[in-house]
Structure formats: C-alpha cells, structure tokens
Amino acid sequence: MRTDPLAALELGPEVTDVDLSGADPEAVREALSDGGRWVLRRCDLTELDLSGVDLGAATLERCTLTRTRLRGAVLDGATVEGGSLAEADLSDADLTDAVLTGVDLSRARLVGTRLTDTAFRDCRMIGADLTGMRSLAVTFSVDGCSLALARLADAALRGWRLERVDLSDADLSGADLRDAVLTDCALRGTDLTHARLAGADLRGADLGEITPDTPAVLRGAIVSTAQAADVCRALGLQVV
C-alpha cells in the first residue's frame, strides 16, 4: 500500500525517503510553511512549485529539487547537504546564513537572491545565473565550487574571497571585483570586460591565455611577477 506523502509531512518535522514530486504543490507549500524546523532526508520534490515557501532554518540532506520553483522562498539559516537544485528557480529567494555543501546547482536561477553570509562549499554551479543579485549585504562565500559558464554580469562582488573556484568561461562583464582575492581559481576564458578590478588580488589565479588585450582588462589588479612577465611577452616585450 502506497504511503500518502502528505501524511508523512503531517508526522514531521523529520521526513525520510518520501516522494513528494507528484503531490499537490499548494498542500506541500502549506505544510512546509507551518513553522516547524524541518529535516528532510533523501526526499524528492522535483518540479514542484514551492514559490514563497518558508522553510526557515530547515535541513535538507541529499534531497532532489531539480527544476523546482522556489521563487521568493525563505531558507534563512538553512543547511543543504548534497542532493540537487539543478535548474531550480531561486529568484528573489532569501538564503541568508544558509550553508550549501556538495549541492548540484547547475543552471539554477539565483537572480535577485539574497545571499547575506551564505556559504557555498564544493558545489557544482555550472551555468548558474547570478545576475541581478541584491547589492545590499551580498557577502556570500564560494569555496571549491565550479562556476564555469555562470552568469555574474554586473554582480557586486567587492571584497569576495574565492578559493579553488573554477570561473572558466563565466560572464563577469561589468562585475565589481575590487579588493577581491582569488586563490587557486581558474579564469580561463572568463569575460571580464568592463569589470572593476582595482585592488583585486589575482596572484593565485590561473589567468588562462594572455593576449595583448589582457593589460587593459586587468587594469588595477594585483598580479605576480610571473604573471606580469607573461603579460609583457604577450605585448611583444622581452623580459630579462
């Protein structure tokens, strides 16, 4: 006999191995917004419309939320470990103080998402859309993540501290990266057109192919002696 997934929510707040993907989204949204401190383990919420749901400081362990709509959702202080938010719509959601570890966020929409003290650790964020982030208190951290092909155009990233982040082919055009520090990061093919890089420390970054346009693109950034030598060679200068 098949267990009613909504009945499992009524028995919460700890729910394990429940498939909610076919449940009534309004009923699921109402149940999850009842103020309980939810712990969802290996639950499937694929493609549900949970826009505006208030999960507060919930814990989601290896849950599947692929293509789930979470527009305007509140996950303030939430812990998300493993699982998938691939292609999920988190536009205008509140992820303040949330910690996401090992989560697949490929092609997820985080347009206008509140990212105050949010931490992304070892997440797959290939092609994620982070344009239009709220300029107030955008103080999140990204460590060990892949942001290849991600969209970060015009993003307010001043003072960012990035470690082991792959930004290959990402769109950072017009972004504010002043005073940012990039350690063991990849900038191969990254679009930095019109980005503000004054004081940005790129000494620990892989700058990819150096071209005659590189000096203008990196104007104001801090680079190592070896990187500076590569730039000079690209300009046809002899370094001795």
From TrEMBL:
It comes from the Bacteria. Signal peptide: none annotated. InterPro entries: 5peptide_repeat (IPR001646), Pentapeptide-BTB/POZ_domain (IPR051082). Pfam families: Pentapeptide. This is Pentapeptide repeat protein. It comes from Actinomycetospora straminea. The lineage of its organism: Bacteria, Bacillati, Actinomycetota, Actinomycetes, Pseudonocardiales.
